[in-house]
Queue: 2 jobs
Job 1
Amino acid sequence: MGQITPINKTFKATIEDRDGWACVVWPESVTFFGSTKSVKVKGTMDGVAFQTAFMPWGEGTQFLPVSKKIL
């Protein structure tokens, strides 16, 4: 099982619609996480807690799906 490494990273992004997915694209995610694979994360958006994953987009980037609760 992989090791969990707590980090504290804040960034601003716009929620976008990509092929029907409400998501956030953070251009630095692949470099920051060192992987194009799925990376589990938890945090807050506008004060609302969430737990999800940065998902691979297939073009060497990642996206963070945004739930209806946050929208």
Note: The mean pLDDT is 88.
Job 2
Amino acid sequence: MAEQFVAAPSKSNPDALLVLLKARTFIALFLVFVFFAFNAPNFMSTANMVIMSKHIAINAILAIGMTFVIVSGGIDLSVGSIVGLCGMVAGYLVLNGVDVGLGWSIQFNTLEICLLVILVGMAIGALNGFLITKLNVAPFIATLGTLYIARGAAMLSSDGRTFPNLNGNAEYGSDTFRWIGAGEVLGVPVSICLLISVGVLAAYIATRTPLGRHIYAVGGNERAAGLSGIKVNRTKYFVYIFSGFCAALVGLIISSQLVAAHPATGDTFELNAIAAAVLGGTSMSGGRGRIGGTIIGACVIGVLSDGLVMMGVSSFWQTVIKGLVIIAAVVIDQSQQKLQARVALQTQANLSK
């Protein structure tokens, strides 16, 4: 009886610790929120909550696309540059349209501008997919290359200058461009509505479609997925195109919010997206991750960033802290995997007795 009494805690303790590790993102969000609520001035004000929610939406949309890429076993370093390029494309179309020569130009309304910008983002995502699947370039190198290409193209589009005053023209129907960043739907900011739409779509794909199962299978074991009949290359194409789609949306939102487009927009955004995905439980080795967890991870990054700004912490220290957060998230994730494996072995041992 004494031996049974001593052995019981050793079995329950790993289970309790595993529950805590799985809930780490919620715990982290609660802790940072409470900390800044007491230490950052005006952190709990309505105005700050609205602003912070818009910041979170931007990072969360980008991180959702990144989650699919990481789950498939890849990485996308180009998303920040795609944000900048798509913002510049939107700014150029709003201000100038497309010059066809002989003094004529094609002008676009807001919906057409949005569709064209999204196509640009998806095209760059398709380029990433082509480099990785057809030319066998490592995802890190391929997306690093497109990072520079997209950023350079953004600079070239205006010789490094800003496209200002993106108020549009009522005559062409582009005067509603500002609504994307400043408008509301039933009192909810458009950026939050877009996050909800993208999140629901991504969660549905991940949990209710064969494509979602294929993404997880490719990330878990690409060779086994191929042997089982899964179109590995098509799956990889999809995740990079979807990531480009998310980045294009963010470019539209930011340029609309600022009513201006700058070629340096989106610099280091890829780091925040990766951090949000990893914090949300996405494994950097692929095969595991949840859209809901990624959104919570984006909330942690958003609250942390805005809270540090409100406390007057240097931007240099903010970068250091984000780096530490990413490292801590990966270490905790690895600890969770090891603990899960140990619990599984204990369960098998108990069943075999």
Note: The chain is about 75% helix and 5% strand.
